[in-house]
Design brief:
globular; transmembrane helix; disordered C terminus; Choline/ethanolaminephosphotransferase; single chain; 18 helices; 1% strand; mainly alpha
């Protein structure tokens, strides 16, 4: 059973990419740089190969972290931590996460799916790397960072589905947010992760200003970074809904109903919180075990599957997917862990720390297989129907022929 019904395949040919970018940095600094940078790639390289190269570098960054700091997140600060120069390599992973459409001036449904799929995976990996750089360690702050990061991505995909265009405001995650992370990685590279443990008022010397010191809590800079991220998320929620509201009003559609399609994400967050905060063992038994990073990676893969289906519904003009089968595993984990509260008996599966870790690793394997199946089937359906290549090298003649085939997918 495929992900694209036969009757929905025709929607691929009607798809048009539409985007709005109001960022000054993007329009006057980054876009000229990206336009020059992608010309360094040979024209015969498949567009999606460049996107995949960005994900590959982030995966390499993640592997580098695991190699240098295998105790990552077992306690605050991990073990000895990687050498400071490693944090500079994380910047390369972000730089290479760019869009091939900047070179060709075109964006088709396959490129849209491929780009969003790689970005969805990058989101979780970069979040884990950033939390390590901020020295947040194994904590609820790291979990909260994952929530905020995924929420922004879900919000953007939800907005694109209902407005028909990707909207980047004056301040957006894919532009200013990424630059902030680049700056954070570079500071960590110079001073190390413990730099962010300093109190913000102490570091800025504002603790000597009585009016400020008496009103503003002197929290650590890494914690203040989390509060700033929360403020940005709240601003994005308001902005995204305003864009959806205006688009729906212009089209004559309902303006309240789209809000219902936001509910699956907070529901999944509540399930993960219930799972982590279960009373069957210690209060934070997954957080304090080697299963925490796999737990976050599992959620990231599940999330990638969810938003992948959302963007697939967008490019094929299908109904918004409210339910996803990947939620089943989170429900099982949360219900099993909370059986002492629900029915007054020990968990059936997670009845010990060892079994909890095994269960997390099992569902991680299931998530990998499920998402890989989704990727293969969707790429196969789209390439077969449109008659285009995905990752294969092409001759100049094939490049020109592909341009003819997808010329209808130009930016508007």
């Amino acid at each position: 059973m495929g992900y694209i019904p036969r009757h929905a395949l025709s929607g691929l040919r009607n798809y048009r990419y539409r985007g709005v970018d109001k960022s000054f940095l993007s329009n006057y600094v980054l876009n000229p740089f990206w336009s020059w940078f992608v010309t360094l790639w040979p024209v015969w390289v498949a567009p999606n190969m460049i996107t995949l190269s960005g994900l590959s570098i982030v995966l390499f960054n993640f592997a580098t972290l695991a190699y240098y700091d295998p105790m990552y997140l077992t306690e605050k600060g991990g073990a000895t931590g990687p050498p400071n120069w490693v944090y500079f390599t994380y910047v390369l992973g972000i730089i290479f996460t760019l869009k091939q459409a900047r070179r060709t001036g075109m964006a088709g449904p396959l490129g849209e799916m491929f780009d969003h799929g790689c970005d969805a995976l990058n989101t979780t990996l970069e979040c884990i790397l950033a939390c390590h750089a901020l020295n947040l360690g194994r904590s609820w702050w790291t979990f909260a960072s994952q929530v905020g990061t995924l929420a922004n991505f879900y919000l953007t995909t939800w907005e694109e589905y209902h407005t028909g265009q990707l909207y980047l405001g004056v301040f957006s995650g894919p532009v200013e947010g990424i630059l902030a992370i680049v700056a954070m990685f570079m500071i960590t590279g110079f001073y190390g992760p413990t730099f962010w443990d300093q109190k913000i008022l102490t570091f800025t010397r504002l603790e000597n200003v009585e009016w400020i010191a008496s009103r503003v809590p002197n929290i650590a800079m890494n914690v203040s970074f989390m509060f700033l991220s929360g403020f940005v998320l709240a601003l994005n929620i308001v902005t995204s809904y305003f864009n959806v509201f205006m688009a729906r009003r212009e089209s004559g559609g309902p303006v309240i109903k789209p809000l219902l399609y936001l509910l699956p994400f907070p529901a999944s967050v509540l399930l993960h919180v219930a799972w982590l905060n279960h009373p069957s063992l210690s209060n934070s038994d997954i957080i304090n075990s080697p299963a925490f990073v796999p737990f976050l990676c599992t959620w990231g893969l599940q999330f990638a599957h969810v938003v992948g289906r959302m963007i697939l519904a967008h490019v094929t003009s299908q109904p918004f997917p409210l339910w996803d089968s990947m939620y089943i595993w989170t429900i099982i984990g949360a219900v099993d862990a909370n059986m002492p509260v629900l029915i007054g008996r020990p968990p059936l599966i997670q009845n010990s720390p060892v079994n909890t870790e095994k269960f997390v690793f099992v569902i991680l394997a299931v998530a990998i297989v499920t998402y890989a199946r989704f990727v293969v089937m969707v790429i196969s359906d789209i390439t077969n129907y449109l008659g285009i290549a995905c990752l294969t090298e092409r001759t100049p003649a094939e490049v020109e022929w592909e341009k003819v085939l997808i010329s209808r997918f130009r930016y508007v």
